[in-house]
Amino acid sequence: MPSVYDEHLPRHVQVLVAGGGPVGLATAVELGRRGVDCLVVEPRTAVSRARPRCKTLNVRTMEHLRRWGLADRLRERAPLPVSWSQDVVFCTSLTGRELSRFTGVLGLAPEGDRFPETGQQAPQYVLEEVLREAVQEIAPQRLALGRKVVGVSQDDDLVSVTVEDGSGKRTVVTADYVIGCDGPRSVVRDEIGARYVGGQALRPNFGMVFESPGLWEHVAHGPAVQYWVVNAAAPALVGPLDRTDTWWAIGFGLDRETGEREARQIIDGLAGRPVEAKVLSTDPWTARMQIVDRMRRGRVFLAGDAAHLNPPFGGHGLNTGVGDAVDLGWKLAAVLAGWAGPGVLDSYESERRPVQERVIREATANMRVLSTELLVDNLEADDAAGAQARWAAGSRIQETKKAEFHSLDLVLGLRIATSPIVPASPEGREGSGWAGARLPHLFLADGRSLYDLLGDGLTLLALGPDASVTAVEKAADLRGVPLTVVRLPGPVADGYVRRLGARLVLVRPDQAVAWLGDEAPEDALALIDTVIGRARGGETAVPRSS
Hints:
Number of strands: 24
Radius of gyration: 25 Å
Structural class: alpha+beta
Oligomer: single chain
């Protein structure tokens, strides 16, 4: 079909994002806040509330939302306040016996200085609506709804993207870069010749959303964000979408035909009694453990589900995609602004792939024990055999499921082990283990978060009055790199030095530690050049931006 000009689309943008789900929108927010002209192409004209999909926004995602000024807005929209419940319950049914319980789950409970934002339970559509608003509020952004990307080609200078509207009319938009956030059926992935590698689970699952007036009156276990139901009639996972009548559920081991035929029986089975209920939507799925063989070709990148898929247990999938968006977003913006070299883009896959692979491994491990694996006889019995069966089930639950609900070491502890833009630290040097890690958080005496003081470019933390910043400042100025210097006062600085083992800490825009030491290196310019991906002796190439 020949292309014609669509007056609603620009002819050229700096970055075109294919897919306006949470990852595509997060990418647009990250880029837009940094002044990048970006077009998001999304087939859906409205956010669907029929299938809530992800319900867990982890601590790291909420830290990014805080940086974007959106954390409070999202919490105001979330139907379940953090204070309402921080528990996961395992039970024979919502009205039956409790087998075990985890508290303070999924980063919902504060832990002192460890992070400035707790996690948040919210349906995916709430996040999408907040991010859509944010994209539309940022001046350079454009949100092209009711359109889809159907073709991508590139040369050394530009990417040409064919965009099709609902009537079949096609328009070619050029961009300096393209990011494929168009999900498991990604056109962009196919166009750059990338493919998923990995496998999928052998057992299907049946998701649904249902409305059940009065069900809360029968729940025997109090509020919880998840209830794992262990009974032969309905081995399932269920949780509230709000504090009134709307629930989501996953029936384990059920295919589409069985799930749709038996949906009402499943609801009664997980409730433990006949209840009034209406099925609002269904969503059959099978877990996939896959990652693409390449995340980039030239000027085209992949992020989110277009690049990797993992089982949902532990709530890591969407959050990992937001991490992709932040990583790629600041790097593209830095290159387009002219202060970073092309090497910074080469670091995207080398930094994100190990994270994505570990998340896939952890989520797959979480899937090994579901309600179906916990079924044993006598769980509802009132006699000694019942008590013994429940004790044994509870012990197994605590042993096998704790890592799923208490995973902050994974969420916050992932470290960039190998990257061309993280200078290698001498082996054995005190504090060297922090290079490539998330900057340790702390609250200042006045209650402010240290993260709120970090700049949009690089930030140099000077810990104490005798920490000299001059050499790094001069090097950054010479390269045109935006550098914010934050000098922490004595008592706070001393404690931070003991923690990090250094008096100077160079922090990237994504709050990762780029370098640390007691004094600036002898060649501070070499340090800056490494962190911004600029080859020594070469000039930074700045792509056309208009």
